[in-house]
Amino acid sequence: MARRVGERPLAVGAGLIVALEALLGSAGASAPLLSIAALALAPGLALAPLLPARLRESPLTVLAAAPALGLAASSVLLITLASAGVSLDATAIRLALGGLVAVGLLLPWPEAARPLDRADLPVAGGLALALALGAVLQQRVIGGDPVPGNDWAKYVLYGREVAAHGGLLITNPFWMLGVPFREDPAVPALYGSFLSLTGEPAATLAHGIWIFAVTSILGVFALARAFWGDLAGVIAAGLLAVLPISHDILAWHGAPNLAAICLLTLVLVYLAVMTTDGLGLGEAIGLGLLLVAVAATHRLSALVGAMAILVVLAWGVAAAEPGSRRGILRSCGAVALAALALSPGVLYDLIERARTFGGTQDYRAYLSAKVNLGPVVGDLSVIFTVMAVGALVFAVRLAGRDRAVAALLSLLAVVIALAYSWLFEIPTAYFRMAYYLPLALVPLVALALVRLLPPPRAAAAGALASVAIAVFAWVQGSNVRDFYSFTTAASLRGLDAVSADLRPNEVVVTDRCWSFQATWLLSTRTLPALEPEDIQPKAELRRARQARAVLDGTPEGLALARRLGVHYLIVDPTCVDTRERPTRPPAVGTPLYVSKRLVVLRLPEG
After folding, report:
1. Cβ atoms of 73 and 237 closer than 8 Å
2. Which of 48, 53, 352, 400 has the maximum number of C-beta atoms within 10 A of its C-beta?
3. How far is 250 from 550, CA to CA, in rounded Å?
């Protein structure tokens, strides 16, 4: 055991992180960054032997892949504990994390092929520059308080309730007059556990998406470096860090979506290895863990991932020699068994959660959420779009020989198919497919540069493209933040005035733009007038229509408002739908407070 410990510096480091966090926590000292490391980084370091051998060839790729693997392991572990009836308090979480690190110490596979050395310094410097550039641009969009967007509020509220109740299958006391929490469980489990470990105010979670933003840059570096070398990895990291679409998802706060994209990055690495060399037992367990975690993190990403896996495997089996084909099928069986063994707690949670959904809406509810190519090109930037088109032409020629290219092209095909799946009457948020494009395109652009140009010119081209796109992203960042900045100082003053006059559990009706934020900031029962395309659980559609009827002043709506005791309507005068058309303003109510992003109206008594 002593020899094993000495040979496992990453697992030992993970153990030190978890032990130090527990020691400080037991002494009553809060160390938020250390708690984040214990939840996200330490499990990935401890389980590094489960990474594909291609990633373990370089210590830098192991370190870059560790946060995504750690998030996957922690989320599956926490959901499993909650499903087993274990309260997610600080003691249980720390013991579980300690057990996970102990498992890592016992794994018989090597964690890295070699230690860090001087040859890694230039690559580490390039990656650090990419992360720094990304951080500057991310700060432009989500830095400071209050953060832009609307969706952050539901994750903050869910995280607070998880920390308070110690479970995941709990009731939201405010949303839609009080319904079960229906969000996917992985991110709330991580958020609630962070609060349990640190005692930090729940509002701190509004910045939690930053962890996933950094992890996504590290993940695309690990993917590109594993197959095409150090320079490709650095170029890919730099491009992903500066793309405006990478900041747009931060602005509206798609935390589970971005977290799932981080996991899918590693899934693609495993798939490429599986269809080339097959997977060893440890690698099969690692992929099984990631698949379970994706299912727990974001259901739309789970659909994208499942379809991409089918395409990659079908392509790989069709192109493989008979001997390799049997290896791929054996690997599929091992992965399926691993996922089955790791999934009971997650499956229980998802099944119980789905019981309250009331089904799924028809595809026609999402027809207003179709992809618009003009804004997509703008979010990718014209520079990157031109580079991506050229890279695709080059990549198609390599797909037969390079399974990583085949995996990326498979993902791209699935994303395009789902973006236009309304043609086949398949219901989904079609425009959300744009956020998966960088995962497919950025590594291909990096590959094209390093294969078509000598290394110095490839590095220069990647740097120039990143800087040029960054300039555009810097300008667009303020526009994106302003578009999603509902909680301005003026609007917060208006909500404070409403909050001071609210009775306990009084019902407030909101439009779609103030839906989640009003629920969190007012901490009272809300009836939000969401549009059909905003809604996943069909069970929430009736309440949303009732809210719309109140805002429209229909006889049924006003009767409902009187029955519920509604006095206040909360709306954003600049609110638009998914097609960026202005939403209908309320037809009733006396204005009490008016600002650029908030109008408070009062309904007459009786």
Report:
1. no
2. 48
3. 32
**Encoded amino acid at 85, one letter:** G
pTM exceeding 0.85: yes
| CA nearest to 402, candidates 268, 514, 287, 566 | 268
d(CA 138, CA 248): 10
Please choose, from the candidates 186, 209, 155, 165, the residue with its C-alpha nearest in 3D space to the C-alpha of residue 74.
Answer: 186
The pLDDT, as a whole number, for residue 367 is: 84
**Positive/negative CA dihedral, 265, 271, 272, 278:** positive
Angle at 254 between CA 253 and CA 257, to 5 degrees: 160
- What is the per-residue pLDDT for 30? 85
CA atoms of 288 and 482, how far apart (whole Å): 41
- Distance of alpha carbon 422 from alpha carbon 550, whole angstroms: 31
* pLDDT above 90 (res 83): yes
Q: Residue 387: what residue type?
A: M
Q: How far apart are CA 482 and CA 495, in angstroms?
A: 19
**Partners of 529 in beta bridges:** 511
- To the nearest 10 degrees (0 to 180), the angle between helices 186-198 and 255-274 is 120
Query: Which one-letter DSSP state was computed for residue 40?
Result: I
Q: What is the pLDDT of residues 482-514, one digit of tens each?
A: 989 988 889 999 999 999 999 998 999 999 999
Task: Give the pLDDT mean for 241-258.
Answer: 95
Residue type, 320: A
Element (H, E) at 468: helix 455-484
Distance CA(164)–CA(481), nearest Å, equals 31
Q: For residues 217 and 205, what is the distance between their CA atoms, to the nearest angstrom?
A: 20
Residue written as tokens 């009187």? 562
Q: Which H, E and C letters describe 512-552, residue by residue? A: CCCHHHHHHHHCCCEEEECCHHHCCEHHHHHHHHHHHHHHH
Q: Which helix (H) or strand (E) holds 54?
A: helix 53-56
